[in-house]
Write a structure and sequence with these properties.
With 218 residues, the chain is α/β, with parallel strands linked by helices. It has 8 helices and 8 strands. It has helices spanning 6-17, 37-50, 66-71, 100-113, 120-126, 146-159, 174-179, 202-213, and strands at residues 23-29, 55-61, 79-83, 87-93, 133-139, 163-169, 187-190, 194-197. The model has no long low-confidence stretch (mean pLDDT 96).
Amino acid sequence: MALLSQDLLDQIKPALQALAKPVTLHVFSQELECQFCREARLLAEEVAAVVPDKVKVVVHNFVVDKAEVETYKIDKIPAIAVVGDQDYGIRFYGVPGGYEFTSFFQAMVMAGMGDAGLSQASRLKLGALTKPITLKVYVTLTCPYCPAAVHLAQQMAMASPLIRAEMIETAEFPHLAVRDQVMAVPKTVIEGVGAFEGALPEALYVEKVIALVNGGKT
């Protein structure tokens, strides 16, 4: 049974056909697929089947394919790395279904067009970063506000080589949600630095990240 409706696939097809460069979805699973690994793989394959000349899927075994796991810095499964002509550090941990299909689709478009879509002001602020950070955005698939936060984090990752952006689906990784004290979503966590909740406008989201990295100073 298909995970995605034909109507949805028909809706996204024109945008994917218009991609300037091909996108590869690197799906990390294992031989005996984990609880949600099959869904993540099938979802990626259903999207790629719509425009096989623009989107392709490469499945990696999390246990066996050590080189790829290290290259893409994958530490849990299911995982999908969305890669354009280069790796922008965009990762989905968990099935990007429900409302999160929006951010998954947006990630493919960004990677394929090579454009983060951030304002010049935001780009200038990100230019002040001096050390690498990872934006871990905790979501649920039923949260209508979560895709906005995920998309902003991914835009920032695409705009700065010092940023990685990870969507983490709380139902699939409850132990991580407990560890990072996720009481509401979306919640953005910068490991070892701090966290904040909410789907904020671009300027405020960027300011929050920079302030946390700078120890509270913007």
